[in-house]
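Subject: design request, 225 residues
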């Protein structure tokens, strides 16, 4: 009877350990999913700003910006010869990933201690998450704008694809992918001499609230401020 009781208790303890372990793994995976998603969102925002700076103020299509990205990437699963993908933010290492590490040595001491409103104010943290396992990559691919050349943009729209990943040394990495169709908002402008310089409206007539009459060579000419 005693051996039976010991066996039942042992099985119960082992079962509880198994349940707790599975719950811990599920919570850790959910946390890593959020970290990967936030990394992808941050990478997407950074990629959009990089493309805006590469685009400039005068270019209406993304052709110049695409050419500045260099040759298409040739990694399996990332585009194809007919539908190339381009690296927007190549990382400094051989794996081309961008990491989000936090270095406590370069941070302010107040960031490494509890706040003044806590139970123990200004108490240094015993440990600090350095985020050394969080990384991201950002890619560009042309949308289906009607032509067969996916390395050339004709409708001022391209797709940005951001991949966020949390590396898990004990298993597979946790990955999140977000993408956005970005459009060049620059508009073509035309300026010329003539009526516009004498105070008329943008449609080259004098139907505006500043000057209701045609200008003459006598006196001052009203202009739109």
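Subject: RE: design request

Done. Sequence follows.
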């Amino acid at each position: 009877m005693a051996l039976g009781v010991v066996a039942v208790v042992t099985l119960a303890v082992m079962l509880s350990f198994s349940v707790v372990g599975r719950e811990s793994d599920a919570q850790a995976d959910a946390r890593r999913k959020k970290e990967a998603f936030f990394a992808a969102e941050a990478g997407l925002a950074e990629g959009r700003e990089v493309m805006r700076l590469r685009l400039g103020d005068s270019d209406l299509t993304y052709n110049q910006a695409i050419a500045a990205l260099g040759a298409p990437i040739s990694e399996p699963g990332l585009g194809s010869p007919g539908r190339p993908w381009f690296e927007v933010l190549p990382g400094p290492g051989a794996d081309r990933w961008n990491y989000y590490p936090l270095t406590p040595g370069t941070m302010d001491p107040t960031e490494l201690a509890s706040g003044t409103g806590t139970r123990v104010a200004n108490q240094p943290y015993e440990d600090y998450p350095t985020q050394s396992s969080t990384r991201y990559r950002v890619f560009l691919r042309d949308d289906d704008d009607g032509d067969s050349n996916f390395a050339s943009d004709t409708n001022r729209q391209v797709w940005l694809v951001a991949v966020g990943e949390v590396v898990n040394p004990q298993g597979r990495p946790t990955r999140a992918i977000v993408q956005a169709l970005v459009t060049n908002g620059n508009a073509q402008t035309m300026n010329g001499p003539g009526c516009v310089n004498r105070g008329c409206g943008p449609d080259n007539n004098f139907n505006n609230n500043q000057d209701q009459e045609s200008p003459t060579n006598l006196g001052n000419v009203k202009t739109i401020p």
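Residues 60 and 202 are 22 Å apart (CA to CA).
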